[in-house]
Prior knowledge:
Structural class of chain A: mainly alpha
Helix content of chain A: 55-70%
Largest sheet of chain A: 3 strands, antiparallel
Distance between the termini of chain A: 41 Å
Radius of gyration of chain A: 19 Å
Strand order of the largest sheet of chain A: 1-3-2
Oligomer: homodimer
Order of helices and strands of chain A: HEHHEEHHH
Amino acid sequence: MQRPPPLPTEGELRLLRVLWDRGPSTVREVHAVLGATGESGYTTVLKLLQIMHGKGLVIRDETSRTHVYAAAVPPETTQRQLVTDLIERAFGGSAHNLVMQALSPQVASREDLDRIRALIDGLERREAEGTER
Amino acid sequence: MQRPPPLPTEGELRLLRVLWDRGPSTVREVHAVLGATGESGYTTVLKLLQIMHGKGLVIRDETSRTHVYAAAVPPETTQRQLVTDLIERAFGGSAHNLVMQALSPQVASREDLDRIRALIDGLERREAEGTER
DNA sequence: TTCCCTCCACGAAGCCTTTCGTATATGATG
DNA sequence: CATCATATACGAAAGGCTTCGTGGAGGGAA
């Protein structure tokens, strides 16, 4: 039995996002993507991926000499954990309070609000149907 | 001119929540609240409050010998910063993606969903009126 | 005044995260 | 086989967070 991986740190999350975007990747590939933006040494990326492997945040294929890393869990799972954690730490455990802040115009763009409304519409419709039957 | 205070760390947020709940408080009072739950040494709380004062996260009244600490910013401001930060780090900058995760049943309770729907209803109504005129 | 209790200030230790330099192994090339 | 480029592994340093021990100052009680 294996416990779920811990929450990723700041830097780990940066790498995870690359792996989620690209799918399984070598260290060099991940480094190339990051080099475009934040700049990080090659061995730094390598070390971090090794640590993440130790934590169970990523899995890797070692059959070829150049290992291929992949995220161990889908983005939704990690994102849900992060949201849950933030709700717990900063919003007294209430998802409602968090959403309220997320909907403030300083945070959500016009497009965000439109899409969120559509989301809620769908949610309400599905629930209404469920209630009728 | 003074820059806004940085994002609070985990431990700092714990103390901030006490100050937001209680209003201005002495070290001893904050410590008493935390002692009920997480258990933290008195000097630990003191030291952390001092650091937070240095960072501008809290203000303090030093007129009496026992200083009185208060949060420097209202909870909404910090919460908005935290949400924005998380959206940036984990959701590719899209508030919509975050709200989607927050609305998942594993995160939001039935009460949360009800209240969020009411929130959206109000938001839509206000916007509809604005559109008509 | 003297004693004692409470409070703040300071410093240091332990831990984690992040970064990178260096050493070692592997495979291709001549 | 010797050489070179590239990959991984290892270790250490720097910085930040959290914790607490100790020292010294202040104010009330005897």
